[in-house]
């Protein structure tokens, strides 16, 4: 068991409907059966741990809340805040937060518009050949390795390099970025560690931004610096917030999705064989992996008392945007708990729903598609290593962190 | 059959374009619009239904 999973005893002792705990090891390893129980008992669970919070598991509730931006603000998107009830130490450095993800309209609207063209279909195509080459270099090493790990040696290595290239920051620092982002997102109850991760990212990007002010380059940070809104250049702190978001949002998420997909293929030989024989199914398979192993849970804060399905949500309460559970709702998906790699009807919300729809979804899809395609081309037969242990991270982003594999 | 994309609902998930590139166009901001605004040739009807059934925002409107 990896140390980021908090072992807090027998999960059967947890009253999931009235006192859920998404950091419990049982939830991280197998949230699916917990959602199934909740669906029958109480489709919007509650807890007073940390802060009064709600956890919906139904598709209609999650998407309804995502669309009701008047009652549910994005000003608190962290599933577990670093400092609950204390002044936010980042406030003076990031007066605008990390928009668009932490913003409501109107700030959300125009900051999002600045980012979107970087992630259009056309733009992400520019990164396809580098992604293909990168995957093949990683696979070269994996084939030679005695104890390959699909998470550490492959999935983890891909998105961080693509994002670093887009931001224009050195790709040889990728291991450092990865550890900052993991420290920040994955160690929910270790405040020092999270602050360290945040500090690392802040300090590094502040310097990169300063450098570009005197010598602009052809990258996202430089373009944000030269952008204007209402005839005014963007404030540096806004550029910082947006750069932090792009660095953080694209790494853990996509890596988790690639890792979960490999995990599925390592443990489901029929699906692996079928994809190898019919690689044209890859687009559908990627959507299905995104649905069934959705990595991202976000949060909202209630701005005004409101009742949803009989649950009295109070101003200041937190709601966890359980996109992963919505995607397994049997009222919306037939055989919801089965992975059907050629599922035809798949209205999943792994990338969210409403105005905050993942800005990087085209990029994430390209990376998933390329990495899995190259992998199965070169390693068509593989399984979990005998005796190896798969470990998962969870909370905000769920995915395998150790995935020992055996090539056969 | 005719189709159109409800611009107030579309959030740029791009599922329609991936499933039916002949029927939809996506701009730099992810927004989708229908390419054909007259009756669809019958061989494209199934693709149109598939796109509508996969749009997470229920933004694709079909007029039979
Ligand atoms: C499989 C990988 C990914 C998944 C599952 C994912 C998931 C999500 C989700 C669920 C949201 C909505 C947040 C909310 O409603 O509060 C979101 C927002 C966002 N994502 Fe992703 N994401 C992924 C990859 C990426 C990548 C590669 C980038 C590129 C940098 C990215 C950038 C963003 C940004 C900028 C937002 C904020 C959009 C807004 O608030 O308008 N994501 N993502
Ligand atoms: S799938 Fe729906 S939301 Fe996505 S681009 Fe197409 S119409 Fe818009």
Protein architecture, described:
The complex is a heterodimer of chains A (408) and B (64). Chain A is an alpha+beta fold. Chain A has one domain (10-407): Cytochrome P450 (Cytochrome p450). Helix content of chain A is 46%, strand content 10%. The radius of gyration of chain A is 21 Å and the shape is globular. The two termini of chain A are 26 Å apart. Chain B is of the alpha+beta class and 64 residues long. Chain B has a single domain (2-63), classed as Alpha-Beta Plaits (2-Layer Sandwich). In chain B, 23% of the residues lie in helices and 22% in strands. Chain B has helices at residues 15-19, 45-54; strands at residues 2-5, 24-26, 32-34, 60-63. Chain B has a two-stranded antiparallel ribbon. In chain B, a hairpin with a 5-residue loop joins strand 2 (24-26) and strand 3. The chains are: A alpha+beta (408), B alpha+beta (64). At the A-B interface, helix 17 of A face helix 1 and helix 2 of B. The complex binds protoporphyrin IX containing FE and iron/sulfur cluster.
Descriptive terms for the model:
heterodimer; A: Cytochrome p450; five-stranded mixed sheet; two-stranded antiparallel sheet; 13 strands; 46% helix; disordered N terminus; B: 64 residues; alpha+beta; Alpha-Beta Plaits; two-stranded antiparallel ribbon; binds protoporphyrin IX containing FE; binds iron/sulfur cluster
Give a brief outline of the structure.
With about 400 residues, chain A is an alpha+beta fold. Helix content of chain A is about 45%, strand content about 10%.
């Amino acid at each position: 068991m990896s140390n980021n999973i908090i072992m807090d005893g027998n999960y059967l002792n947890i009253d999931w409907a009235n006192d859920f705990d998404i950091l419990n090891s049982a939830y991280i390893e197998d949230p699916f059966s917990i959602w199934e129980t909740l669906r029958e008992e109480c489709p919007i669970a509650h807890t007073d741990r940390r802060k009064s919070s709600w956890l919906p598991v139904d598709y209609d509730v999650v998407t309804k809340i995502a669309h009701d931006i008047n009652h549910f603000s994005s000003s608190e998107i962290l599933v577990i805040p670093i400092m609950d009830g204390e002044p936010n130490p980042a406030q003076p450095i990031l007066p605008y937060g990390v928009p668009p993800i932490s913003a409501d309209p109107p700030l959300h609207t125009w900051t999002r518009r600045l980012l979107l063209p970087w992630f259009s279909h056309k733009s992400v195509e520019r990164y396809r050949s580098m992604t293909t080459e990168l995957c093949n270099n990683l696979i070269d090493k994996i084939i030679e390795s005695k104890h390959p790990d699909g998470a550490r040696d492959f999935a983890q290595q891909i998105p961080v390099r693509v994002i670093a290239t887009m931001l224009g920051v050195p790709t040889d620092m990728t291991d450092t970025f990865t550890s900052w982002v993991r420290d920040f997102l994955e160690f929910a109850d270790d405040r020092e560690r999270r602050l360290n991760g945040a500090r690392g990212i802040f300090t590094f990007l502040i310097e990169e931004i300063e450098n570009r002010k005197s010598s602009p380059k052809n990258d996202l940070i430089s373009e944000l610096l030269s952008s204007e809104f209402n005839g005014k250049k963007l404030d540096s702190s806004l550029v910082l917030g947006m750069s932090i978001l792009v660095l953080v949002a694209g790494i853990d998420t996509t890596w988790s999705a690639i890792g979960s997909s490999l995990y599925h293929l390592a443990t489901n030989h029929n699906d692996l064989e079928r994809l190898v024989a019919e690689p044209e199914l890859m687009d559908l398979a990627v959507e299905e992996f995104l649905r069934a192993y959705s990595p991202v849970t976000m949060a909202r804060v209630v701005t005004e008392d409101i009742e949803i399905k009989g649950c009295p949500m109070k101003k200041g309460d937190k709601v966890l945007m359980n996109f992963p559970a919505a995607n397994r709702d049997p009222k919306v998906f037939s055989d919801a708990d089965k992975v059907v790699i050629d599922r035809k009807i798949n209205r999943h919300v792994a990338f969210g729903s409403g105005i905050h729809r993942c800005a990087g979804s085209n990029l994430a899809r390209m990376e998933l598609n390329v990495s899995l395609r190259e992998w199965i081309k070169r390693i068509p037969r593989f399984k979990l290593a005998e005796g190896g242990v798969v470990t998962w991270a969870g909370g905000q982003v769920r995915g395998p962190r150790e995935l020992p594999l055996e090539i056969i | 059959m005719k189709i159109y994309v409800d611009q107030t609902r579309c959030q740029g998930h791009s599922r329609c374009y991936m499933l039916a590139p002949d029927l939809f166009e996506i701009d730099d901001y992810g927004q989708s619009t229908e390419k054909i605004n007259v009756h669809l040739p019958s061989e494209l009807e199934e693709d149109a239904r598939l796109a509508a059934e996969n749009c997470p925002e229920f933004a694709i409107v079909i007029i039979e």
